[in-house]
Amino acid sequence: MAVNINTVYTTVLFILNKEQRGYIPPAEFNSLAVQVQNDIFDTYFPDGNQVNRFNQNNRQNDTEFFDMFKDISYKLFPFEKETDFTYNAANTGFIYTANKTIYKLGEIIATTPASQTSQPSNIESVVQLTSKSDYTEITRSKLTKPTAQYPICFTTQTAAAIAPATTPQLLIKVSPASATTTLKVNCLFKPIDPSWTFTIGSLGQYVYNTTTSIDFQLDVSEQNNLIIDILKYAGIIIKDPQIVQAATQASQQEEINLKR
What we know:
The protein has 7 helices and 10 strands. Helix content is about 40%, strand content about 20%. It has 2 domains: about 5-75 and about 195-260, no CATH class; about 100-190, no CATH class. The radius of gyration is 24 Å and the shape is elongated. By secondary structure, the protein is α+β, with helices and mostly antiparallel strands. The longest helix has about 30 residues, at about 25-55. The strands form 2 sheets. It has an 8-stranded mixed sheet with strand order 4-3-8-1-2-7-6-5. It has a two-stranded antiparallel ribbon with strand order 9-10.
């Protein structure tokens, strides 16, 4: 369940205006909202790694609703999706053609048609992701040359943008592969940028527009963190050290409580 952007914005404004400490206009708030959402999203990975070490040392609480590793994984579920990559002959590799931004690549599955392998059925194989140098070394060796059962790949980018994209795209080069091979990749996508939009009211005031606004993509449990972190940045913008200090202390205390 996502976090309503209007709830966060009105709360931030209420806290800032309570003692006449300043005002954050929608454009500035939206910039801070994007930054804070990305900051929180990026913390899931080092936090998950730390909790996983607790698991390995048998120090992690795995009781239902109190398993921190499961909680972090749950927060990432909405951003995880198995995605088709399309073969692009000009770049002799597979590209992702949709608009979302890929954050990480997970398991890569290649399906090679039976017609390419003289097998009675198609071959579905896990593709090993390697570096470019390892890819070159492995594919040039007769002993380690990849097969349909054991393919390998490396990532690079297209030589130029492929419409509708305006910049070069992520490219996966697979060996062996051809235009008839299909590639499915378990991808983790970046959250969509939040945006608080408005119409102009009869008195010239900003009126929240539910139709065009975009909520935060993070789990509802992150609402407090979103508000606190936006206040930290807001305090810097309006040059109020007391807001920065109070928000920082609240953020640190919440992090300590989570990691005890």
